[in-house]
Amino acid sequence: MAQKKEISAKLKAALDFGPLLVFFVAFFLFKDHPVELWGQSYGGFVLATAVFVPVLVASMAALWLLTGHLAAMQIATLVLVVVFGGLSIWFNDPRFFKMKPTLIYMLFAGLLGFGLWRRKPWLQLVMDGAIPMQPAGWTILTKRLVVFFLFLAVANEVIWRNFSDTVWVNFKTFGLTILLMGFFAAQAPLFSRYGVEGDKDEK
Known about the structure:
The chain is mainly α. It has one domain. The chain contains nine helices and two strands, in the order H-E-E-H-H-H-H-H-H-H-H. The chain has a two-stranded antiparallel ribbon. Helix 1 (9-30) runs antiparallel to helix 7 (165-186), helix 3 (72-91) runs antiparallel to helix 4 and helix 4 (95-118) runs antiparallel to helix 6. The chain starts with 8 loop residues before the first helix and ends with a helix.
C-alpha cells in the first residue's frame, strides 16, 4: 500500500474548497445569462454544475497524485457528485444535484449508525484517523455526528424545496461549510477530554 504523502495546508484547502468556490462563481456568472445548446436553454445552475463536476474530478485526481490517498468521505462525495451532477446536466434539471447533499448526509448517518450498532469504529475510517482519541470519545462523537448529519439532510431538503436557486447555492457554499466547522469547533471539550495525548499526559 502506497504511503500517504503530506502537502501544505493551503494547497489542501485549495483542492478541497476550490471546486465549490468555482461552482459559486460560475452560478452567479451564468445566473442571468442562459445558454442555448442543442435546442435547449441551460440556466445558471446547470451550467455551474457542468463546470463544477470536471473541476472536482480534476481536484480529487490532483489530491490523489500529490498524496497517494483519498479519504472514504472524499470518494463517496466524488461518486455522488459525478452521478447526480451528471443527471442534472443530462436532463437539464437542477433537482438531481440539489438532492446530492441530502443523500450523502443520510448515507454517512446510516453508515455511522450501522457502525455503532456493530460496535465498529467506522468514524475513524471516515475521518481518516485524523483525530487521536480514546474509544469512548469516538463513540460519543459518532452519535453526535449521526444526529448532525440527519439535521443537515433535513435542512438541505427544506431549503432546496422551498427557496430559490440563489438561496440554495449560498447555503451550499457557505452555510454547510460554516455549520460543519461550527460543529467540530463545538467538540473541542470532547477532543480535550478523550484525546490520546491528553490521556497520556494525565498518566
